[in-house]
Amino acid sequence: MSYTPGEVFINEEQIKDAVNKIAVEINNKYKNEEVLLVGILKGSFVFMADLIRKLTCPVKIDFMGAKSYGDGTISCGRVNVTKECDMPIRNQHVLIVEDIVDSGCTTSFLKKYFEDKGAKSVRLCALLSKPSRRKVDVNIDFLGFNIPDEFMVGYGLDYAENFRNFNQMHILNP
Question: 50, 71, 99, 102: which is the annotated catalytic residue?
Answer without folding.
Answer: 102
